[in-house]
Model the fold of this input.
Amino acid sequence: MVVSCHSASYNQAIFSGTRFAIPHFPENMLRPQRGRVRESGDFMRAVVFVRRTGARGLGHVGWAFDCADGSFNVGSVENPLHHLRTQPRDDGFWALRTRDPIQPMRLRRYTDFKVIPIEHADVARAWRTVAWVSSRPYDVIGHNCMDATYDVLRAYGLEDLPIPADHWEPNHWFDHVCGAEYQIDDGDVLAEPPGESQSNMALPDHESLIINAPAGFTPEMPAWRTLQHPEWQRFQHARRAALPTLAGKPQHGIAARLVEFLERHHIHL
Done:
């Protein structure tokens, strides 16, 4: 286990047995009490996943967020056709409401994840953003897996995520997320010990799979994606100001991927 961004909040984070545990936070951050919604002052969890080998080594990311009832929303936009632009019906969007956010990502060959505690989370807003993400076409510049994960988790309440800059690849973006990091290929890594979920959800997790806009939630475009909104202006400024990748590292970001695709298919601008 690796701890990124060594602030006091993440000091001495550990991996404990069959679940991840972060000392110095209340126990109910890790396991919601049966039949109740978390109260003010309790901590929720957001999770960022990465498949290091995705997109020919550029990486691929997805999200999960704590719904405060013992379940998580977990998902991503996979773009299985690998097109620069893919319509929503073919872009591989999926989401799942599940007790264990780790297993669906393990099945999809994600390799690592980071856990970020959050005190003030907006679950409904995050679900509305998931609905919006599901309705958007995949775009290699501006709406890729990195953008979707950023939008969902920022809507959830994570205000200090690294900006999804055009010249950043998903692996590089994941490395800059501040959180306790774990490897997902360890079969003992679970959000809860087997058989001890507190949610009492009646349906098996696989029956909660969502491949279209989730029912009951009106898609909501985030303010930072709304043209000319003050949040959009600040977001664009931050994207332009994002630092380049590490010195000496090959520049294989999203923009470079676009150039490589055009050259491979003999497309000239």
